[in-house]
Specification:
This protein is α/β, with parallel strands linked by helices. It has a single domain, classed as Vaccinia Virus protein VP39 (Rossmann fold, 3-Layer(aba) Sandwich). The protein contains nine helices and seven strands, in the order H-H-H-H-E-H-E-H-E-H-E-H-E-H-E-E. The termini are far apart. It binds S-adenosylmethionine.
């Protein structure tokens, strides 16, 4: 039995995904209505959020303090599979929120024989809740959630990184990739969830930058990008 299948972790993830649905559903429906009414795609909707973030990042995410904004169960299982396939021992996560994605990744670390996940989260209330969820999952010993702006808290990740999940502020995908990039080992996986920033997409899809990258079909429309460090 793998860690995701244990009663504690499976039960907790089920509870958290339900809580996320309850907290976020009205927000997501509103976003879908806005996208449909505008006649533009998700990429254009994301462009507005990118612009809002550039005028003030903290107020935008303070507004989401009680929202999970989490990965789907399907994407979570994909995260687990990626971390297992790459035999990841050192993982970095930009955007921990309440810790749902973190639980999938930390479960993979446990099943890989151990390791470390360094997470980052701007909102103090979310950091506290994520830590509580990781304790409840029995995975807290594998995870360090750093509170504050990832551009500062992830400046020192203490060694080579096998897998990077980028799931934070839309406008910081490229800055965070450039911050962690020098630590990514050849073959490391970078997963961009909601990687809507055209500059980020162009950067990872240009082999001259040392990556091989393509859009992912999982949760289509959510801007998921799958990237491998090729050198
Ligand atoms: C989409 S949510 C992350 C969801 C999480 N990965 C999951 O699946 O459960 C994005 C999170 O990034 C956080 N965030 C935004 N800007 C940040 C920054 N500069 N540093 C750290 N965290 C940030 C937000 O507060 C928010 O909780």
């Amino acid at each position: 039995m793998n860690t995701l299948e244990t009663e504690i972790v499976a039960g907790l993830l089920d509870t958290l995904h339900r809580a996320a649905h309850e907290a976020d559903n009205a927000h997501f429906e509103q976003v879908m209505t806005e996208i449909e009414a505008s006649g533009a795609g998700a990429q254009q909707w994301a462009a507005k959020l990118l612009a809002d973030e550039k005028t003030g990042l903290r107020p935008v995410y303070q507004g989401y303090a009680d929202h999970f904004l989490s990965v789907s169960p399907e994407y979570g299982q994909f995260l687990y599979a990626m971390a297992r396939a790459s035999k990841a021992a050192r993982i970095v996560e930009f955007g921990t929120s309440m810790g749902i994605s973190t639980i999938y990744l930390a479960a993979a670390l446990r099943d890989n024989g151990g390791g470390t996940l360094i997470g980052s989260e701007l909102e103090p209330g979310k950091v506290a809740r994520a830590r509580g969820h990781l304790e409840a999952a029995g995975l807290a010993d594998l995870v360090e959630v750093r509170e504050g702006d990832a551009r500062e808290t992830l400046a020192d990740v203490g060694g080579a990184v096998d897998l990077l999940l980028i799931d934070g502020a839309f406008s910081l995908y490229l800055p965070v990739l450039k911050l962690i990039g020098p630590h990514l080992r050849p073959g490391a996986i970078v997963l961009g969830e909601n990687a809507f920033d055209p500059e980020y997409q162009a950067y990872v899809r240009d082999p001259a930058n040392g990556y091989f990258s393509q859009a992912l079909a999982i949760d289509e429309g959510r801007g998921n990008e799958f990237t491998v460090r090729i050198r």
